[in-house]
Design brief:
The structure is a single chain. The protein has 297 residues and is mainly alpha-helical. It contains 9 helices and no strands. The longest helix has 53 residues.
Length: 297
């Protein structure tokens, strides 16, 4: 049987969402609406500052504040239903995967079970299936949501001020490059951790199943030493993974904060020259935070 590539495997995983396509339509429809609310909110803040506070129009200020509260309430309701539907669809798909996986394991030959470690099967059946649930649920939703938010925010920034938007766009390649480097180091480590967990599970399962034999031949200390050795390998891989995250996360924050400082400095200068209003500057910094959030995640 020809080995499938990653794209084919991903496609097979998403096929399990087919029976729940109505929920998926609702989930991604709400995602568009939520992003539109996110884009509209800074514009309302800009109007509240420029027209309400600096314009001295308390009626307008009250209306804008009320509008922001209503949008926040509506966004909260949409977030709730989006989360509920996403979890239900992914859990339902994984329920079907687990049933199909068990039917497949039961139908496999004795030779397969003889040459395959039980710990690896348990690790794949539990950990890998849980990873699939996260992938076809919240992970892919957050990726698409981030792309849509970046596109919407970029358009809003360009419409407001092309010069400031260009400064932000110049920062994005640095962030994307750093995020790519992080993923290139972190993904292989995650795979190694998963494989080592399978080895650890196998060692534990064999000791529990063969406890009488171990005791009969007085091999307790030897088995403990073997388990500690495998456990140390898993610990070292986990520590290395934590180190990679600890190094890259502050670097992403540093680049993002540099962009914020640059916008406040140049945008503040434009405000003093009456080329930009204070409300527009606040809206710009809010959009910048929204633009950087998907990349940080």
């Amino acid at each position: 049987m020809r080995r499938q590539n990653d794209t084919q495997i991903l496609w097979r995983c998403f096929q399990y969402l087919r029976p729940y396509w109505k929920l998926e339509v609702g989930i991604y429809g709400l995602m568009i609406l939520i992003n539109l609310v996110n884009i509209l909110t800074p514009q309302l803040i800009r109007r509240a500052i420029d027209g309400g506070i600096y314009g001295g129009d308390l009626v307008l200020l009250g209306q804008v504040v009320g509008g922001i509260l209503l949008l926040t309430l509506a966004k909260g309701v949409m977030d709730y239903y989006q989360g509920q539907w996403t979890e239900f669809a992914s859990q339902s798909a994984v329920y079907d995967i687990r049933n199909e996986l068990l039917r497949k394991l039961v139908s496999l030959s004795f030779s397969f079970h003889d040459r395959t470690e039980a710990g690896q099967i348990l690790s794949r059946a539990m950990q890998d299936v849980e990873h699939i649930r996260f992938l076809i649920g919240r992970a892919i939703l957050r990726i698409i949501e981030g792309v849509v938010l970046i596109l919407f925010t970029a358009v809003a920034l360009l419409l407001m001020n092309v010069t400031l938007a260009s400064l932000i766009i110049l920062i994005l390649p640095l962030l994307l490059h750093r995020a790519y480097k992080f993923g290139k180091q972190f993904r292989p480590l995650s795979l190694e951790i998963q494989n080592q967990l399978g080895v650890l599970t196998t060692r534990l399962e064999q000791n529990l199943r063969g406890a009488r034999i171990v005791k009969a031949f007085a091999q307790e200390n030897a088995e403990i030493s073997r388990f500690i050795q495998e456990n140390e390998k898993w610990f070292d891989l986990s520590a290395k993974s934590t180190t990679v995250q600890a190094v890259h996360a502050p670097m992403l924050d540093m680049i993002a904060n540099f962009g914020t400082v640059l916008i406040i400095w140049y945008g503040g200068w434009q405000v003093t020259q009456n080329q930009l209003t204070l409300g527009e500057l606040v809206a710009f910094t809010t959009y910048l935070a929204m633009l950087l959030r998907p990349i940080r995640l």
